[in-house]
Amino acid sequence: MNGNGHRSANGNGNGHRPAKLRGYSAWSLVQHGLSRGDWPRTWHDHDMRDSYDVVIIGGGVHGLATAYYLARDHGITNVAVLEKAYIGSGGSGRNTAILRSNYLTPEGVRFYDRSVKLYENLAADLNFNVMFSQRGHLTLAHNDASLRTMRWRSEVNKHEGVDSDVIGPDEVKGLVPYLDTSPDTRYPILGALYHPPGGIVRHDAVVWGYARGADANGAHIHQLTEVTDIDVEHGRVTGVRTNRGRIATKAVVNCTAGWASLISDMAGVSMPVQTFPLQAAVTEPVRPFLDTVVVSGTLHVYVSQTDRGELVFGASVDPFASYSIRGSLEFTEGVAGHVLELMPALSKMRLLRQWAGLCDMTPDYSPIMGPTPVEGFYVDVGWGTYGFKAGPVSGEAMAATVADGAPPEIISSFGLDRFADGRLVGEKGAAAVGH
Amino acid sequence: MSLTTPDPTPTTTRARPGRLAPQPGEVIDRRRPVTFTWNGVTHRGFRGDTIASALAASGERVFSRSYKYHRPRGLLTADFLDPGCSVQVGDEPNVRGGHRLVEDGMVVSSQNTWPSLKFDVKAVNGLAGRFLAPGFYYKTFIKPQRLWPLYEKVLRRFVHAGEITADVSGGVPGETFDKRYAHPDVVVAGGGPAGMAAAVAAALAGSRVMLVEEEHELGGHLRWGDADDREALRDLRAQVAAEPGIEVLTNSVVSGRFDDNWLSIVQRGLPQVFERLIKARAATMIVAPGLIERPYVFEGNDLPGVMLSTAVRRLINLYAVRPGSRAVVLTANPEGDAAVEDLRRAGVEIAAVVDARAGDTVVRATGRSEVTGVELSTGARIACDLLVTAVGWTAPTSLLNMAGDRPVYRPQAARFLPDPQRMPENVLATGGIVGDGTVTELVAHATAIGREAARRAAARARAIGEAVPTRGGDAPALPNPDPTPVDVPVLAPADHPELFQGSTHGFVDFCEDVSSKDLVIAVKEGYDSIELVKRYTTVTMGPTQGKLETVNTVAIVAAATGRTMAETGTTTWRPMYAPVTLGALAGRIHEPVRYSPMQSWHERHGATPLVAGQWIRPEHYGDPAAEVRAVRTGVGIIDVTPIGKLDLRGPDVAQLLNLLYVNKWSKLGIGRVRYGVMCAEDGVVMDDGVTGRLGEDHYLMSTTSSGAATVWEWVEDWLQTAHPDWRVHVTPVTTAYASINVAGPRSRELLAGLTNVDLSADAFGYMQVRTGAVAGVDDCVLWRIGFTGELSYEIHVPASYGLHAWERLMAHGADLGVQPFGVEAQRILRLEKGHFIVGQDTDGLTRAYSGALDWAIKLDKDDFVGKPELVWQQEQGVTTQLVALQPDDRTTVPEEASQILAADGRIAGRITSSRMSPTLGRSICLGQLEPALAAPGTVVTVRLVDGRDIGATVIEGLAHVDPEGARQRV
Hints:
The complex is a heterodimer of chains A (435) and B (970). Chain A has 435 residues and is an alpha/beta fold.
């Protein structure tokens, strides 16, 4: 969004005062419990306007956070979020909810660290408990090569001020007694990258909290609204076509995952993205025994235990590109075998359910964020397997991008033009196992 | 049936809940009593009892506490699904007490109760229930945020589940998990009357059939039926037993259906095998799971003593257990009516029969720790200790949904039914999931479906057989199925009143403690699609995965939103249909391990093992520095079998090499070896190795050890997709050869006495290849190359002679002081020589020019993989550069991955390899650096892992030792 054109369309420009989010507290629970009155709707249904200042495609955490920060930080409130199913139905509701910032490149570390910081304050900011549990994050090393990569990450992390270090097998055992750290296992645990601020969060709550915050600030959330085309005239966005009619707008933000390249194609912008399924699974609950997130790149598995007692498993993306979101038997066999390599005591736990989501993979395992050659068409895509943990910082940065017409420093490395310039941001070493 | 007039007061003489006299259909063996403990107290049962039936026979009514409010819970379904009867058995959590058979000595306990099942302190949550609305945790514990970890600890204590023990040995000795592969023509999921009849019909039509039944024996609802049912059951079981083409799997369940009828079947209860996963590729699958009885939603519906009609009938008829003393029965169907008769026969006083078909219903059940009374819609209050409901059925369509079907709601039948239009050709359905009928009607439908499944299986076998081009004339004849589909009689669902919720709120999800009121509140708060309701309230997310809850949830959400049930739809049914242990999914843990043929020698000689991908190799034999010195001054041998090896034959091999390597191959003469670097399409270094030309059209390519599989796939990918016309045969021969590198100034001396190959410098020069005999073994390949920087020969011996060749080299070299060396010494040697390792000194962004490979890259070649990117990189200049560094302090070895800082404190590079050099007596490194700092003589700052900064100087070239390469050319 260039200059103040769109802001003035809203009448109050930066004069918009962000709505103070309140209403949820222990006291209000007691009051409602006593009065048995109804809670207000978390967000509202609206008729679709003929035009919006900004149209955000994708009602996941990225789209909703962008809408929220547009209002909170920039006073832009005439905003629509279009969601083809229900909010959080895509990657935001299918990921394994792991947060961390122990990436490999300085750019990546700074970016994800900002996200973790935003997550740390998100519950108070949104007045919605997103249950961020900073229980620590362990990435196991089973050979000297991965130990070297862990060291590389920890050195870059420390340099950027992120709490991260390589620890030995005894410390690993102290953190996770159920891990088999004996030296005679097939893949002995030689050490681990330990990242205390990492953890898990209630992913749906993040979506709902942002939806509530965006709604309270005037954004319209349109569910069951599928974008069918994007109108571009003379190199500028002029509107969005949906199954519920056309919306005139000069600013469109593509916040989709799984379909990011298809939506961008509608605006005539080609994305270097391939889409792969990523599978996950959950077990029946057992009493809590696993306090940290455990990742093994060698064994292609990661595991955490929810506050409900379930173990959540994930792995690498499927080995072939596809839009299928059905699970496969082979995935569960592989993940079970690898988990039991790490924690043999879990053999009698039962797998309850498996599912899949779609991941838009870029060549360098980093996202594509910012303006595109089509004026008014912004992208926040290519999120691979790390989109959820970047939700808050992406929303904040994309809101700034739309408001200022140019990306802020924190995402300047992630522009689409880097694929023409060759300035890739290689995160494969820290992101190849999708979590 | 006769309707009973409500009788508000109990008679004085009542039969107590407990074991009945023998029942005609009972499955317990009264001659074989078993003893087990329940929460430390000894109980008795009979062989054939489930944990639940044995406890119920002892008069136990409370089996668990609920998740959120810690309400006492008893039996509801008395089968696998029973949400109130998850128990701990020894080291096994979450055992389905309604399904698991009792065994002598079993130790059973209730889960997550404190201090005891009967008095649970957390039951106070029930009093606070009005404040614990759905999602209450999203609305509180927000401030102060620093207290959330404490809140979280408390919340985690409420986890409603069993325990696992931290025994890393992995469970009971001798008890294993297992897998099996099967290729049946027809799999029948469900062994009730329809499943049995379908299996018999399919087998009679010539199919090999797998009949899978979740319970411990075949029969479905006939097992707890009347005399006619038992007669039909005997007949059907006899027919199944008479068919050798049917394999019966009881206590087993089809847990998933994946593409092309790839079925996962869990088989339980085998001797010594805890669980087995059968992976079956079935030509056709018949889904015949019957129906699941649906609970009714009303106040108090979770009190112990409130049971489904099927639960009551199972307890009485299968286990001879009297489920209560005085019962009220709410019935809307014949199953409920039959339950009344069963209860009467069992001596249970029938206080009232409430006929829902006549519009009567139950308002609420009352009682504290169990049901003590019922309030009816007529206003009557009746004392009772048992309330039985029979209000309808859920068709468990999961397997059909996994096959692409979407169930359709039929209001007249009050249930979702499969949509035959959306079922794939290789999946059929029969029995209760399709419709209702007498046993005869069910059997008639199932028989037709069974024949049709066999016909389709035969048609598939024929189609596959006909498609095999090499099918010989003596192959068995293909089946010749009738082209006409079997005529399947109609099996229509019976009309049934729509009964989901009464006039009061009650529990919808018993696993998750979610009530109908919670669902209504969620809808009002805006969570108004079925998926959002599920996620907000966690309804249907517990161990039963919606089998008992989904339809009631849909009905309540539909009512709350003003939509129809069809518009509301169901949540997605995902695999697994029934939970599967991780052990069964993993099978016998089998992570492949690769050893070279010389492994036994290494072990005998004290080698320290190193895990290198799938390979286990010697890291060293005690003193890597000594091993290095031996190679520099005498001779050493190293086992390099894991090096990837591809045998390439054909007239177009040189073209292939030109395409895949950045350097040139057209002029490589026979007997010559060349080093090559492969890049991916993005110009990033992917692998390196040497390739030798053994004959006119015959080459042997080597790859890095870790890249062996990747490069093979890469070569095949380019050949098969881009150049299928090229005549190249690729054979991976990594493990066909044992590979030994003989290195050091005396290596020629050592090898000379063991080979018929002329080793003189003139006859066999540097970077040449010969074939010949080594240690009496013919067909060995000898490469004269030098990764270590010394004169060396890499010999590839047919693998079965590897150990022999190694032992001969050691024996023959004894007087030369030959020293075996391991991977660590090799790493030091190559670092001294400045040879990089792909993936260690390069990373996922290192294009070839950054790897100091300018000399190898031939941009004047027509084309090669990665060329456009490398042309571009050459124009733009590199962003990082591989360099050799030497720390100013000769004794400090910066840890690999230590960062190199620019003057302004930015990260400007990193140490990629570092060691103490025994040859130079100083620390040496390789590193990636920004080009501005990469000039020889530049002093850079290295940030050590402990935070100290040291200086290091970039040296000329990459080699720390013998930069001229004189030592390897002698």
